Amino acid sequence: MPEKKPIPPETTKELTYTEKVWYTVGIVAIVAVLILIARVAFGVLLMALAGCLISIYFHGLGDVIERKTKWKRLPCMIISIAGSFIILGFLLWFMGSKIQIQISQLSDTLPLSIGKLKLSLDETPLGRKVLEATSGGSSEKLFATASQFFSTSFGVLGNMYIILFLGIFFTASPSLYKDGLVLLVPPDHKELARRIINRTSLTIKGWLKGTMFSMILLIVLMPIGLSIMGVPLALVLGLLAGILVIVPNFGSLIAMIPGVLLAFTISTNTAIIVALIYIGVQTLVQNIIAPIIQKKMINMPPALTIVGQLIMGVLGGAMGIIMAVPALAIMMILVDEIYVKKINPK
Predict the structure, then answer these.
(1) What CA–CA distances, in Å, run from 65 to 54, 204, 251, 297?
(2) Is residue 302 within 8 Å of 286, Cβ to Cβ?
(3) How is the chain split into domains, by residue range?
(4) Scanning 8, 192, 209, 242, which has its CA 20 to 30 A from the CA of 293?
């Protein structure tokens, strides 16, 4: 029997410790760059979505003007855009100085209201327990979170001019961008893409209609109720409640906090009544009137909305929270058209 020659071991080059360190650093750097690019791209997508909402608003208002007047499309769109800016400018000119004064007073009054609330809570055993639970690190963390939220919100306001220009461009030639999206889809699915775009536009129009009507009602009703109770700065509190209606679930709670704190400067009973006014008006507007206007075009489970807001908030900050509902609506339409209708055809 001939002897078997031993198989020579494979020659492999061992990496030195320095090379391993540099490989690890390189991998971590690549992953970090990819995450950063995804984060930035997500922010750009949110601004593009906000621009689409502005465009849908202008076209929706143009549709209403066209139906009522039977005019051609171009003058209706000019009236829609120019009229919106004129009304906004008039409101800012008419109420801007008063709102600015009240905002300044609110920033000066809130610390005093918080101090008075602490004194009121310190008079009862339950209140002392609440103060103990919120003292120290918990309160510092709460104030830090609030500061981060408002600084992020001001960052969102800083990007408004970009969103506004995107909205104007989308409004000027919507078919250009719509056809461009359809061109990216394979020929067999172009009809599906057009159906998804049209359905998304109709759904977002319904959401915008209900949200804007809710905003107007809150801006009108809330100052009336607060003025009846003698709460100061009712105009800016109503404006804050109307603006924050765009943030479901959390917006109403955030809007209620300064109103209740200012009511504490009058009396505890006034603060309780003011809290009930906030809850009653916001429940009436957001849970009864808005769904009727939207005609159930967006029927999202509340838990899904909250989870979506938390995820969007982590990814996109305040802008992500604001855009959570329309983004979820688009995702639900995509899942329904691409997946659900395929496995459950009617």
Answers:
(1) 17, 19, 31, 22
(2) no
(3) 23-126+160-341
(4) 192
Greatest C-alpha distance within the chain? 110
pTM value surpassing 0.85: no
Rounded Cα distance between 224 and 220, Å, is 7
Question: What is the 8-class DSSP label of residue 339?
Answer: I
Q: How far apart are CA 225 and CA 16, in angstroms?
A: 74
Instruction: Give the pLDDT of the chain (346 residues) as one tens digit per residue.
Output: 455 555 555 445 566 767 767 777 788 888 777 777 777 778 888 888 889 999 989 998 898 899 889 898 889 999 999 999 898 888 778 776 676 777 677 776 766 666 666 676 666 666 666 566 656 554 455 445 444 444 444 445 557 778 888 888 888 888 888 888 888 888 888 898 899 998 888 888 888 888 888 888 888 889 898 888 888 888 888 888 888 888 877 788 888 888 888 887 788 788 888 889 998 888 888 777 777 766 655 667 777 788 888 888 887 777 888 888 888 888 888 888 887 777 766 5
Q: How crowded is residue 139: how many other Cβ atoms within 10 Å of its Cβ?
A: 12
Whether 256 contacts 323, CB under 8 Å: no
